[in-house]
Structure formats: structure tokens, C-alpha cells
Amino acid sequence: MKKIVSLFLLLMVMFSMVIPSQAKEKVNDFELPKTIYVMQEDSGMYIATDKKTADLKANMTDDYGIYETKSGDLISYTGTNSYQLVDRYEVLLIDEDAVSNILTNESIIIEIRNELEMQSKRAILGQNEEAKFVLYLPKELQIKVREDFYYEYGGYQMLDTLVYFHNLDTGYQFIKQGIDTNLVAQEVSNIIVSIAGEFFQAINIFNYAANAYEAYQNITGTYPIYGQYEDYLQYLLKYDIYTKYTFVNKNLGMGYELGAVTQNVKLISSVIREYHIDYYGGNAVDTPKVYNTYLTTDNYWNAAQTAIDHSYGIPWVELVELSIYGHLINL
């Protein structure tokens, strides 16, 4: 399934090279409240309540979608009337020993361990000392008549495993080198966002320029000379990735089955770096931009029903994909 999505995405990002720089940006109009009010049942499960008293208040933590109650419990937003009680684990991605301990934990599904191993290798290679991995595992409720119970929806037992990667970056990656770089710079204007392989939106890279070529002109006050082999154009992105794995137990003797993988990406910032030979010699310039915007797949905030619908066989997978001028960005 992933190969099919990737092939479709490749075709889409090739098409995205012709998306105009004036493409309209969509607005992420869903925002979780910073404060919620919840009641804890005898089972230990938290549910939403209309009562707004101080003892029922829970505040958003630094991890978006995770709240801390008055008693210090951590609960995750599920998109249902129930909140999931969770335990939190955190390691720096460059800490090989800490990462290794998690990789040997077979209670964590292989997809999460593979992603952690890959992101750790990238952080070590890029010497990214700020990148970290945060894992939220469901905490079993104390219900005597039902084992392995976490939260429920539609009459089914559910659980979410939440994976947060913070402070990731791509490092500087080439868009173009050598002759024709200045021509390509005239076309570099947007980050193309695709969700599950389908075009979602184009995000402008520059605040005060239509494209990279114009940004270079604005900064240097001169023009690149065409056909220079020394020219290059690069990008760097900084971002967080939140991935939710939603499981369903339909009480058929199969236990919990993975039904949906959904994602939320926080695009933090970008830098476009370009070097051109111009009429004053050669200049390397950086054009930064801060976004702090969330790019969320359709079912991330309400994955329960999607997981129920796809808990037989192949789970539903929807991921955020980014590209610049046809270059698929490896998040």
C-alpha cells in the first residue's frame, strides 16, 4: 500500500512543479482548546463534561493533544467523548543507549521501532542534539470485568499509541546545482503538501518575494549570471511529526488490531539557501521563514471510526508528504 501511495505521490509532485506561486493556502481551522473539563469514572476513564469547576480542569501540555489533569494524570484527546489515560516516555534521538532500550521493547509495534531507528540515525548523522522522541502508551484502566481496557467508542474497545518526534530537520538538501540553477530559482516558490498521496495545498516559502530568484535579487541588489557551474539552490526544513496508531478490539478473540495510522506535522520553519555568480562576484544568501503551522490528515483528530471501519486486514494509512519543486522531502 505504501508503495502505491509513494508512486502516486511521485506523479503528483512532478505535477506540483507547475503549481503557481500565487496558489491559495488552506487554513487549518481545527484547533484544540488549551483547557478542557473532564470527569474520572470509577473505572479510571476520563470523559468530557459540561461542568466547569477548578477540580475538573485539565490543561494542554507542550505535546499538542495531551492534557494534564488536576491530579497529574496525562490524558490524550481521542476525538470521542472519552479521553485516554497515558504514560509518557521521552529520549533524545542522539542518545544511542536510550534509543536501543526502546528498540528492544517488543511490546512496541515494529512500525514505531523502525521509525525511531531511522530518525535516530538521521539525528546522529546530522548532529541534531535537540531532536527527541516522545512516546505515549495507553494506561490500562482498572475495570475488573474487562481486561486490557483503555477507552471505548461505538461499543468497541479502543486504544491509541501516540508517537511524537520533536525538533527534526532535513539538513541542507540540494534542489539544483550548476547551470540552469537561476532558471530553477524562478520556479521555486512553494512547499507542496500532499495527504495520502493527494494534493492538499501549496504553502508560500517567501514572505517578500515571489520566488527564490526574486529573493536573491532583493537581498543582493543584483542579478545572477546565467550558466554558472558554481551555482546551487538548497532547502532546510524544521518540523515536528505526530503519528497516531489507533487499534480496535471487536471482541472476536483477535485482541487489538491496528485499524488506522494518521498524522499531524507541525511545520516550524524553512531556509532557502542559494549561491549564484552575479555581476559583483559570488554571493550565498539565506532566506528564512517561520510557519509554526499544523498540517493534519483528515482523520487524525477523529481516528476511532476510521480504525473500526478498517480493522480487518490492511489498516487505513494517511500520512503528510511535502515536496519542493518536485523533490520529495524525506520527513
Structural summary, described in words:
18% of the residues lie in helices and 42% in strands. The longest helix is centred in the middle third of the chain and has 16 residues. It is elongated, with a radius of gyration of 23 Å. Helix 2 runs antiparallel to helix 3. The protein is built from six helices and 18 strands. With 331 residues, it is an alpha+beta fold. It has one domain. Strand 14 and strand 15 form a beta hairpin. The strands form two sheets. It has a six-stranded antiparallel barrel. It has a four-stranded antiparallel β-sheet with strand order 12-11-17-18, covered by helices on one side. The two termini are 18 Å apart.
Any descriptors?
331 residues; alpha+beta; 6-stranded antiparallel barrel; 4-stranded antiparallel beta sheet; disordered N terminus
The end-to-end distance, rounded to whole angstroms, is 18 Å
Shape designation: elongated
Integer count of domains: 1
Largest β-sheet summary: 6 strands, antiparallel, barrel
Q: What is the number of helices? A: 6
**Gyration radius, rounded:** 23 Å
DSSP strand tally = 18
The strand order across the widest sheet is 1-2-6-5-4-3
Would you kindly provide a brief summary of this structure?
The chain is built from 6 helices and 18 strands. It is of the alpha+beta class and 331 residues long. It has one domain.
Give the SSE layout.
Layout: H1 2-16, E1 35-40, E2 46-48, E3 57-60, E4 66-69, E5 74-77, E6 82-92, H2 96-103, H3 110-125, E7 132-138, E8 151-153, E9 156-169, E10 173-177, H4 181-185, E11 190-195, E12 198-204, H5 212-220, E13 232-249, E14 257-278, E15 281-296, H6 303-309, E16 316-317, E17 320-324, E18 327-329
Parallel strand pairs: 14-16
Antiparallel strand pairs: 1-2, 1-3, 2-6, 3-4, 4-5, 5-6, 6-7, 7-9, 8-9, 9-13, 10-13, 11-12, 11-17, 13-14, 14-15, 17-18
Helix pairs in contact: 2-3
